[in-house]
C-alpha cells in the first residue's frame, strides 16, 4: 500500500518498465486476469507436483497404476449381496456389490427415518405436554450422541445380547429373531401371482384417475362426487382380490427353518444391517423431526385461522393449507438429511456391514494396494449421488420459487 | 362531580377449572380423549421402564472394583469406568506426564469461561490467543521435546484429550481456510469462483470416512518420500480439508446477509478489497455466523469419533478397546452409556449456547 508514495518521491528516477507494470497493476481489467493467472499457475504446479510425487512413490513401491485390477479375481467372500457374488468374481463385481449394499441401507434408512422423523416432529408440537416433552427428550438425546457410538451400541450391546438360534425369539412359526439376525418368510412369486401384481398396479392407476377427476370436478363446480373415497377403496381392494380368485393364485411362503446351527430359507436380515439401520434411522429421524417442526412452525397462525373460518374441517386444514406450505420449507433441509444419511451409511465399515467403503475402500484396497484408484472411485460414487440430488434440489427450488408471489 | 360513594366491586375469581394445577393438567394432558390416551400410555411405559433403570444404574450398581467379577450381576458395573477413567481421559499418555494434559484441559476451561462471561476484560486478546496461539501452545505442551519437557509421541495420545484436541485444532485451523473459500466463492473472478465452488462441493459431497481413508493411505503418496507424516497429523489434515468446506458454507451465509450498501460504502471510501473485507465486511459477517460455526463444531466434535477407523484412540475407540479386555468382558452397555454421556454433555451444552447466541442476534 506504500508503493504509490514510494514511487512519487522519486518520480524521475522510475524506469519506464516499472511505470508500465504499475499502470497495468492499477488497471481494473488487467489485475483480475493477472491474479487468476497466478492462481491457475499455482494450482497446476501443485497438481503436477502431487502427481509427480505419487508416480515416484508408486514406482518405488512397485504398484502399477490403472484400472486393470478391476477384472482380477477378488477371492474374498461378502456376507450380504443383492446380486450373485462369490469368491471367484472380480474386484469390479465387489464394487457393484458395495454400491448396491450402500443404496439398500440408505434407501431403507431414508424410508424409516422419514416416517419416524415426521411422527416425532409432529409429536414435538403436540398440545399434550407429556408427549411433546418425550419427543424433545428423544431429539435432544439422539442428535447429540455420535452416530458411530449409536451403531456400536446397537451392534455390540443390544443385538449381541440376543439369544442363540436354538433359543430364538419367535413370532408364530415363521419369524425368528436371534444372534444371527432377523429371519422372515419370503413370498415366492409363482405363475398365478403375476396377474395379481399387474392388477394391483391397474387398481392404483384407476384410483388415482378417479381422484384427479374428483378434484377437477370440485375445482369446477365446488362439489365433489359423493362417496368418492369409498369408490377408490373398493377399486383398490376389489380388483386385486377378484383377480386373485379368478386366476387361482396361491401364496407360497418360503419360511425359515432351523437347520444345524442356523436358519435356512426365507429372507434373512443380518445383524450388521439391523444395527446400522436402527442407528441411522434413529439418528437421522431426530434431525428430520427438527426440520419438520421448523416447517410446521413456519406456517403462520393466520393461515390456519383463515382456513378454519372458510369452513374447512381440521383434517382438511392440515392437508390442504398447512402441509403444502410447510413442505416448501421442509423439503430442502430434508433432502440434506437424506444425503447425510447416505454419506453416514459409510460408517458401516466399523461393524463390518459390506457397504461400498467396507468392501471396496477396505478389503479391495488392502488386497490390491491400488489406493489412488480405489479411493477415487469410492469418492466418485458418493459425489455422483450428492451432486445429482443437489441438482434435482435446485430444479425443485426454482419451481417452488416461481409459484411464490 | 362524581359522588364519593362509588365502591369498586372486586373482579370475580376465574372459575376453579380455569386456573391452578388441575386446569393445567386438564389442558395439557387430558384435553381430548386421544390426548388422554397418549398421556396414560406414556405414563405407564415410564412407570415400567424408569424405576428398573434407576435400580440398575444406581441402587444395584457397583462403583469400584478390579474386574468384572467384582460387580454384582443385577446392577450396572461402573467399576469398569472408574478403574479405567485415567485411560479414557489421557489415553496412553505416561502417568508422570499427565499434568501436562491437565494443564491443557485447564487452559481450555479458563479460555471458555473467559470468553463466555460478559464482564471479563480483554476479550479481543483472549480470542486472538485462542484462535492463533492456543493450538500451537497446546501441541508443544503435549508433544514436548522443548524447554526440557519430555517428548511424548502422538501414538500415546488418546481418550478425551485426543477427541478435544482433534476437534479444536480441526476447527480453528479450518476457520481461515473457510473464510478464504467463502470469499473466493463470492468473488467476481470466474476462475477463482469456480475453483472454490468445486473444492467446496467436492468435500461436502463425500463422507468424512473416505476423507480419513484418503488422508491415511493417499497423503503419504502425494508428498516426496522423505517427508513422513505422523498418523495423527494425517488425520488432522484430512479433517481440516473436510471441515474447511463446511466452514466456507457457513461463512458464505454470513457474507450474504451483509447488505450490498456496505460493500458499496467501502468501495466509495476508496478502501481496497482486502481493507474493506477485513475492516468492514468480515467483522459484521463473523458475528452473524457464530451460531453456525458452533453448530459445525458440534458436528465435527461428534465426527472425530470416526478416527478410530484409521487406528487412532479417541474417547470412543479407547472405550471400545477397553471392552475387549478379558478382565472386563460384558460391560459394553456401561461403556457406551458413559461415552454417550460425555459426548452428550459437550454437544448439548454447545447447542444450548448456540441457541442462546441466535436469540441474542435476532433480538
Gist of the model:
The complex is a heterodimer of chains A (405) and B (363). By secondary structure, chain A is of the alpha+beta class.
How would you describe what is shown here?
- The complex is a heterodimer of chains A (405) and B (363).
- Chain A has 405 residues and is α+β, with helices and mostly antiparallel strands.
- Chain A has three domains: 3-59, no CATH class; 91-183 and 261-403, MetI-like fold (Orthogonal Bundle); 191-249.
- Helices cover 68% and strands 6% of the residues of chain A.
- Chain A is built from 13 helices and eight strands.
- Chain A has helices spanning 3-9, 16-26, 30-61, 91-124, 129-143, 147-158, 193-221, 228-247, 271-298, 301-309, 314-344, 356-368, 371-403; strands at residues 169-171, 175-178, 181-184, 186-188, 252-254, 257-259, 262-264, 267-269.
- Chain A is extended.
- The model of chain A has no long low-confidence stretch (mean pLDDT 83).
- Chain B has 363 residues and is mainly alpha-helical.
- Chain B has helices at 20-28, 33-59, 79-90, 98-116, 123-143, 159-185, 190-204, 208-222, 231-256, 260-268, 273-303, 315-323, 332-362.
- The longest helix of chain B has 31 residues, at 273-303.
- Chain B is globular, with a radius of gyration of 28 Å.
- Chains A and B meet through α3, α5, α6, α12 and α13 of A and α2, α7, α8, α11 and α12 of B.
Taking Cα atoms only, what radius of gyration of chain B do you get, to the nearest Å? 28 Å
Output the strand order for the largest sheet of chain A.
1-2-3-8
The CATH superfamily of the domain at 79-93 and 152-362 in chain B bears the name: MetI-like
How many distinct domains of chain A? 3
CATH topology of the domain at 79-93 and 152-362 in chain B: MetI-like fold
